[in-house]
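Input chain follows. Return structure tokens only.
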Amino acid sequence: MSYFLRRGRLFAALAASSSALVLAACGGGEEEQQTSSGEAPAEDVGLVNEGQLTTCTHLPYKPFQFEQDGKIVGFDVDLVDLVAKELGVRQEIVDTPFEGIQSGEDLNARKCDIAAAAMTITPERAEKIAFSDPYFDANQALLVKKDSNIKTLDDLEGKTLGVQSGTTGKLYAEENAEPKGVKLKDYEDVALELSSVKSGQVDAGINDVPVLLDYAKDNPELEVTQQFETGEQYGFGMKKGTSEKLATVVNRVLSEAKQDGTYDRLYEKWFGVKPKSSS
């Protein structure tokens, strides 16, 4: 998504004041791993905490990051585990409101070393965040009940569309649905948005394609209808101006994972299919 403000949440007072929940990522025990290519020790890349790569994310955003059997797992988690392994440290995950992630505030405050939250690279965000190379292509789509007869935005005239605050999906809806007479209802959390579609509180929801497909798979009474080509690409975020060494490692790990088949294997693990292209 080169022109949308993607996946964020407006900072609500409650979210801003809530304490961050720190959870260990799946794949622990990597702290004993030696770096595979002679990379400098972890402290030389300026990690917030010695011996660990601290990751900011906002849960849940299945299948990118979510809790399962007491562990945080997902596609993003597995990719950042590769970076932690390269550095010879373990990954530690901080669950925190997305507004602080996408604004760069958490990175600037040294709450974490890297942000992995299915976050789209945008020019606005790139002014505040140092992004990695893109690691995932994503677009937007509609989620509806199968018996709703809603197939496109045009079918939502006079109805209510759920949107996630601060996201490119919301911006797309503001630009393309509101002019058609569609009422928008904001949700800070994607889980609340999607459950509202399921319960009938809203007539449809708009969000990232892979998240909606995963939710529809688990809720067969729902379906994904119209998809919107927005050209969105996710990137990992780092503190702007002081993370050049870490960004170099991240980009190298992503490149090597795509070349040696690791990226394809992880993609298929979480999305059920191989990527069209991992180059």
